[in-house]
Amino acid sequence: MFAIFAVLIGVVVAIQSRINGQLSVDLNNGLAAALISFLTGWALLFILVFAFKRERAGLFLIIKAVKTKELAFWEVSGGILGGCFVAVQSITVPQIGVALFTICAVAGQTVSSLFVDKIGITPSGKQEITTPRIIGAIATLIAVLIAVYPDLTNSEFKVLPLIMVLTVGIFASVQQGLNGRVNAIATRPLATAWLNFATGAVIVVVALSINLVLGAKIDPLPHNFWVYTGGTLGLIFVAVSAYIIKHLGVLNFVILNIAGQLVGAVVIDWIAPAKAGSLNGYLIFGTAMTIASIAVSRIFEARKTKS
């Protein structure tokens, strides 16, 4: 069941990416689009958290845990890492292209998730780096490479942006582990998501302020309502992932989530392609390969557990 949730919220991420991408184009500023996404999601979370007693109690439990040092500051920094990911995405995609960004981000996520699980940041405890897990991580990276291969011709190799993307890819898997840790205290995913959005928005505000000082502009707000729904989808992702991460571990979650994103991309490009040729054999094959690698790795892990 938790694996299905991980795949489904991967589909949600794919939809959110399309929505935020369109908002970024409309505003002619990726950081402004990211800030709107954060603020709309946080506003909805503010209503949900403070309207319900259990959600408020979960948030107060997080605050109490920080005050009593049950949670260290770095353990509640998941939202900051998420804000850094969005900021770097907005800065680097125009420089290196979506394809290279995707590959580097996935590489950072999959490799670091092996070590995040080994260290035992999540409530699920430590998980050894086994051969099936390594194969699953490598297969996922290869599958994503195949899926985005046609767009690599539009990419440009630049060392500093690539290093930045790899770094925030590592941040992404650490963020998932930390969110699981915080949610173990709060026991309320919406409270965990509230903290993520609040701290992440601060980072995006700083990045956008620097962006505007350097001469960037923001076009008028679009009138299409649907482009403002990315924040709502984001809060669904953060809340659900914080809840299920303890049951899956970071690596399994990341791989399943990436599979969901690829499935979502196939469906979206089939129903409403952003451009001609969006849906192609590379994307379909990469998606199928990801699903197959998940199935094989889970079979091997199940056999090892029985033995």
Give a verbal description of the structure.
This protein has 307 residues and is an all-alpha fold. The model has no long low-confidence stretch (mean pLDDT 87). The longest helix is centred in the N-terminal third of the chain and has 42 residues, at 78-119. The chain has ten helices and no strands.
Which tags fit this structure?
307 residues; 79% helix; globular; 10 helices; mainly alpha
How many separate domains make up the residues? Answer: 1
- How many strands appear in the DSSP assignment? 0
Which parts are unreliable, with pLDDT below 50 for 5 consecutive residues or more? none
The ordered H/E elements are HHHHHHHHHH
Overall radius of gyration: 19 Å
What's this entry about, in short?
The chain has 307 residues and is mainly α. The chain has one domain (2-306).
Explain the layout of strands and helices.
Layout: H1 2-27, H2 30-51, H3 53-67, H4 78-119, H5 131-148, H6 159-186, H7 189-213, H8 230-248, H9 250-271, H10 281-306
Helix pairs in contact: 1-2, 1-8, 1-9, 2-3, 2-7, 2-8, 3-6, 3-7, 4-5, 4-6, 4-7, 4-9, 5-9, 5-10, 6-7, 6-8, 7-8, 8-9, 9-10
